[in-house]
Design brief:
19 helices, alpha/beta, 60% helix, single chain
Length: 415
């Protein structure tokens, strides 16, 4: 005797060879919770109870499932697993009539509305759980910061050109925020010359430029423009502080290895910490260098050695011939740190940064000078020379040279 067990949205139904219902276990009031557990590939108590009840009564119990590993611990020898069964197809085709028989539901509309309600609730919970607010905040903040960087860069250039006629000496200031602050607070040439903000600077004002007259109405518009720029710089500083605190909270290991700025950019590039944690270190190494990677694939140019992680101080501050090796070491530690932050218990592993520092020191010690390309592969260079020589000979003598080189075999000649 054979029986079939089929999973439906309302419970588990067991039928015999002739599609007669022999047993069932319904979800009752916990339909939403049970559907969520099924979606997570969990073996429900109701199904387990039904299998244990039937496996002694039938020679073979066929379970319609795509994951047979869930049932290995039950130790029932007569269980058979199939992805689709004839009984399952029959139940799905006649679900309303079967539910009229085994439940209190007597109307097809009630069945449809109950099913829709349960699946809508499951979908809503799934969408809510998929949205990770910390990742969203980091991604949006770092994107805003990059746009602010670009905007302030363009606006400060405009302010320099605007103030150039009557303040050419201020072009020596490299701190652009200080420049904007000076114009916003002091504005006039005479006030800037006596400003306390320039006390420690080496700027000398030329008396010949004092004769340039600027109208008060012109100075007012310059001042308001500079004040707006100062507000943008303040916002930028605030966002940088926020990113620093957020990365420390969300990804402490990543922060210790890569710093706040690189960590935030990597997370933003991959749209989340878990997406970053799933990547291999070789991919992390070239994140942000997509153009160079595709150019390498298309034209055969040298592949990129680093992408966003080039901003790491141990890579940027090193000699060019060791940057690739250090980038590999940094990327491997970033991959480990991201996995610890995404799937760990939130503990900070201090050994990551220690190991990285030791690795970087070893790379620099082992490679004090750049290596010549030819000295590394002497055998391959010899082979390439031999190949070139053979190519020249073939080009020069053509088929004739090839015929002369043909080996004679036994039977091709007589003494």
């Amino acid at each position: 005797m054979i029986c079939y067990i089929t999973t439906t949205s309302f419970g588990f139904i067991a039928t015999d060879n002739e599609n007669n219902i022999v047993a069932y276990r319904l979800f009752e009031d916990n339909q939403k919770q049970k559907l969520e557990e099924i979606r997570k590939n969990k073996l429900l108590d109701e199904k387990k109870d039904l299998i244990l009840d039937l496996h002694n009564k039938y020679d073979e119990v066929i379970i319609e499932t795509s994951n047979s590993s869930l049932y290995t611990h039950l130790e029932c020898e007569n269980l058979v697993f199939e992805k689709t069964t004839t009984a399952g197809r029959f139940i799905r085709a006649n679900l309303d009539e079967i539910l009229f028989e085994i439940t209190d539901l007597k109307d097809s509309d009630d069945i449809t509305s109950q099913m829709n309600y349960a699946f809508n609730e499951v979908t809503r919970d799934e969408i809510q759980s998929s949205i990770k607010m910390n990742d969203v905040m980091i991604v949006e903040t770092i994107n805003s910061l990059e746009e602010l960087d670009e905007t302030t860069g363009k606006l400060i250039e405009r302010l320099h050109e605007w103030c150039m006629p009557y303040l050419p000496e201020l072009d020596k200031i490299h701190n652009q925020q200080l420049y904007a602050k000076l114009i916003a607070t002091e504005t006039t040439r005479s006030a800037i010359k006596e400003s306390k903000l320039l006390e420690n600077s080496n700027i000398d004002f030329i008396d010949a430029n004092d004769d340039i007259e600027v109208k008060d109405s012109d100075l007012m518009i310059i001042k308001s423009f500079a004040a707006s720029l100062c507000e943008l710089y303040d916002t930028k500083n605030m966002l940088e502080e926020y990113i620093d605190e957020k990365i420390k909270e969300v990804a402490p290991n990543l922060y210790s290895v890569a710093g706040a700025n690189i960590s935030a950019k990597l997370i933003a590039h991959m749209n989340g910490l878990e997406s970053l944690a799933r990547l291999p270190s070789s991919t992390i190494q070239i994140i942000g260098a997509e153009k160079a990677t595709f150019r390498h694939l298309k034209t055969g140019e040298n592949p990129p050695k680093h992408g966003i992680i080039f901003q790491h101080p141990s890579i940027r501050g090193s000699n060019w011939w060791v940057r690739g090796k250090i980038a590999r070491a940094v990327a491997s530690k970033i991959a480990i740190a991201a996995r610890k932050d995404a799937y760990g218990n939130g503990e900070v592993d201090d050994n990551l940064i220690k190991d990285l520092d030791e690795k970087v020191k070893k790379i620099k010690k082992d490679n004090p000078f750049p290596k010549r390309k030819n000295s590394k592969n002497t055998t391959s260079s010899k082979k390439s020379k031999k190949d070139k020589k053979q190519k020249k000979q073939r080009k020069k003598y053509g088929k004739k040279a090839k015929r002369n080189k043909r080996k004679l075999h036994k039977g091709d000649f007589n003494y």
